[in-house]
Design a protein that fits this description.
Shape: globular
Helix content: 25-40%
Number of helices: 3
Oligomer: single chain
Radius of gyration: 15 Å
Order of helices and strands: EHEEHEHEE
Structural class: alpha/beta
Distance between the termini: 32 Å
């Protein structure tokens, strides 16, 4: 295993729908603009890691996504778990999914995850303080880990 697919998950930056918990503080447009900046940063991190090809998986087609020099795929599935499992299955190789909302991830984090996959680990998770994950890397799809994710 030399390379992995890097998949950036991102919502479309629609005012009132992106970063909705921040709307009371930033306003709908401010939250959408912040989401755009975070998404640009996540794609830049994925490309800079040089772990393999990068794809952007969006929630819907949006003109913002055309700004990137990476393929856009639409997320498929009823919930986040199904959407991530589908992305891993579609990759047909080891893959790393990162979200667009964790600016502390750096290219070295993705390279480290790939090294762990190469070292024989089936899965690598980078947890966040709020109980979620900033990065999920898998050598192959593992459906059980995606069950019951809201």
């Amino acid at each position: 295993m030399r390379r992995a697919m890097i998949i950036v998950f991102a919502k479309a930056p629609v005012a009132g729908q992106a970063k909705s918990r921040l709307v009371p503080r930033l306003g709908a447009w401010g939250a959408a603009r912040l989401h755009e900046r975070l998404t640009r940063g996540a794609v830049a991190t994925a490309l800079a890691a040089r772990c393999g090809p990068v794809e952007l998986h969006g929630t819907r087609r949006h003109s913002f996504f055309r700004r990137f020099a990476v393929p856009l795929r639409l997320q498929r599935g009823r919930d986040l778990g199904e959407r991530m499992l589908h992305a891993f299955a579609r990759a047909r190789r080891p893959a790393i999914i990162i979200g667009s909302d964790c600016p502390v991830l750096v290219p070295g984090d993705l390279r480290r995850a790939l090294r762990h996959l190469r070292g024989g680990y089936d899965a690598v998770l980078a947890p966040t303080e709020d109980g979620g994950y900033a990065l999920i890397a898998l050598r192959f799809p593992i459906p059980e880990i995606f069950e019951g994710i809201a």
